[in-house]
Write a structure and sequence with these properties.
With 241 residues, the protein is of the alpha/beta class. Helix content is 52%, strand content 10%. It is built from eleven helices and five strands; from the N terminus they run E-H-E-H-H-H-H-E-E-H-H-H-E-H-H-H.
Length: 241
């Protein structure tokens, strides 16, 4: 009987380090990507339960004229106020957890060999245990700062607030298994992505790390008991630490 095997690669980094670019390059190679940013945008669309909770907590002034969330205004609020940031996390993270788990289950049972978890707060949420290997996309703080101003039009204060709200990139580098430094050109980055991905996937690992066990595959009852335990566990994939 053939056993399913799948490598779970964690992909993380700091703001404006180029993590999204790395994710896009991997997607071009048909690598399945579970993107927490995409999930977070989807769950707050107008009319969804998470959207309603956010409006109730932050007020209707965070809405655009069409009724959708004003994400830029909401970002300004949470990146300058840690209390409000925690309130938002408490609303959104449980729903993000469920969707991440749902996609992991789908790719596992689909027989995928590799899946990438694109999680900006991977280390902050302490979910290293979920990944076989972790790739950190890094850039110097000065490069991050200049990119935020040029790309997003932030003021110097806004750029500094965004960077300081996250774990220092040097800490993430020390915790990762592989580091892709993105201080150069896009051509240099593409080469680094290819080389790093090959290194990170050269070994095979049976089952999800600390997540799946052989017995689960033989019993629907065990599977659903396990699934319920994960969804109701206080140790959520995106819990606020």
């Amino acid at each position: 009987k053939n056993k399913k095997k799948m490598i779970i690669l964690g992909l993380t980094g700091g703001i404006a380090t180029g993590k999204s670019t790395v994710s896009k390059e991997l997607k071009k190679k048909s690598i399945p990507i579970i993107d927490a940013d995409v999930i977070s945008r989807d769950i707050v669309k107008k009319g969804k339960p998470t959207y309603q909770k956010i409006v109730k907590t932050f007020g209707i002034h965070i809405l655009q004229e069409n009724g959708e969330l004003n994400r830029e205004l909401l970002g300004e609020i949470i990146f300058s106020d840690s209390v409000m940031r925690k309130k938002l996390n408490a609303i959104t993270h449980p729903e993000i957890n469920k969707e991440i788990l749902k996609q992991l289950l789908y790719y596992y049972w689909s027989g995928k060999k590799v899946v990438v978890l694109d999680l900006p707060l991977l280390f902050e949420a302490k979910v290293q245990w979920l990944c076989h290997k972790i790739i950190v996309v890094a850039a110097s703080e000065n490069v991050q700062f200049n990119r935020l101003i040029a790309r997003n039009g932030y003021s110097e204060k806004e750029a500094k607030n965004r960077i300081s709200s996250q774990m220092p990139i040097s800490t993430k580098v020390s915790l990762g298994d592989y580091v892709i430094w993105n201080d150069g050109t896009i051509e240099e980055l593409v080469v680094k992505i290819r080389n790093t991905f090959e290194l990170a996937t050269q070994n095979r690992f049976p089952y999800f790390p600390a997540l799946f066990f052989p017995c689960i595959r033989s019993s629907f009852l065990s599977f659903f008991t396990f699934l319920l335990a994960i969804l109701t566990s206080p140790l959520l994939l995106w819990r606020e630490c």
